[in-house]
Design brief:
This is Putative Glucose repressible protein Grg1. This protein has helices spanning about 1-30, 40-69. It has about 70 residues and is mainly alpha-helical.
Length: about 70
Amino acid sequence: MESIKQAANYASEQVQKATSGVSKETNKEVAKDSNASVGTRLNAAKDAVGDKIDESKHDAKGEAHKQQI
Protein backbone atom coordinates (compact mmCIF):
# COMPACT_ATOMS: atom_id res chain seq x y z
CA MET A 1 0.00 0.00 0.00
CA GLU A 2 2.85 2.37 0.84
CA SER A 3 4.42 1.85 -2.59
CA ILE A 4 1.14 2.85 -4.25
CA LYS A 5 1.12 6.06 -2.23
CA GLN A 6 4.74 6.78 -3.15
CA ALA A 7 3.98 6.10 -6.83
CA ALA A 8 1.08 8.56 -6.71
CA ASN A 9 3.30 11.14 -5.01
CA TYR A 10 5.98 10.58 -7.65
CA ALA A 11 3.46 11.07 -10.45
CA SER A 12 2.15 14.23 -8.81
CA GLU A 13 5.65 15.67 -8.51
CA GLN A 14 6.36 14.86 -12.16
CA VAL A 15 3.22 16.75 -13.24
CA GLN A 16 4.16 19.73 -11.08
CA LYS A 17 7.71 19.63 -12.46
CA ALA A 18 6.38 19.67 -16.02
CA THR A 19 4.02 22.54 -15.24
CA SER A 20 6.86 24.57 -13.75
CA GLY A 21 9.00 23.80 -16.79
CA VAL A 22 6.36 25.04 -19.22
CA SER A 23 5.83 28.19 -17.16
CA LYS A 24 9.60 28.76 -17.03
CA GLU A 25 9.94 28.51 -20.81
CA THR A 26 6.98 30.84 -21.35
CA ASN A 27 8.43 33.40 -18.98
CA LYS A 28 11.84 33.13 -20.67
CA GLU A 29 10.24 33.95 -24.00
CA VAL A 30 8.45 36.98 -22.54
CA ALA A 31 11.70 38.14 -20.95
CA LYS A 32 13.40 37.98 -24.37
CA ASP A 33 10.58 39.83 -26.18
CA SER A 34 11.93 43.22 -27.22
CA ASN A 35 8.39 44.43 -27.87
CA ALA A 36 7.42 43.97 -24.20
CA SER A 37 7.98 46.73 -21.69
CA VAL A 38 11.05 46.64 -19.46
CA GLY A 39 8.89 46.03 -16.38
CA THR A 40 7.11 43.13 -18.03
CA ARG A 41 10.40 41.61 -19.15
CA LEU A 42 11.96 41.95 -15.70
CA ASN A 43 8.91 40.43 -14.03
CA ALA A 44 8.95 37.52 -16.49
CA ALA A 45 12.67 36.95 -15.86
CA LYS A 46 12.04 36.90 -12.09
CA ASP A 47 9.17 34.46 -12.56
CA ALA A 48 11.31 32.22 -14.78
CA VAL A 49 13.91 31.97 -12.01
CA GLY A 50 11.19 31.06 -9.50
CA ASP A 51 9.81 28.46 -11.89
CA LYS A 52 13.27 26.93 -12.30
CA ILE A 53 13.58 26.65 -8.51
CA ASP A 54 10.14 25.00 -8.33
CA GLU A 55 11.04 22.66 -11.18
CA SER A 56 14.19 21.54 -9.38
CA LYS A 57 12.32 21.15 -6.09
CA HIS A 58 9.66 18.94 -7.67
CA ASP A 59 12.33 16.89 -9.42
CA ALA A 60 14.12 16.24 -6.13
CA LYS A 61 10.89 15.34 -4.33
CA GLY A 62 9.88 13.05 -7.20
CA GLU A 63 13.20 11.25 -7.04
CA ALA A 64 12.81 10.78 -3.29
CA HIS A 65 9.36 9.22 -3.80
CA LYS A 66 10.73 7.06 -6.62
CA GLN A 67 13.47 5.72 -4.33
CA GLN A 68 10.85 4.78 -1.72
CA ILE A 69 8.82 2.71 -4.16
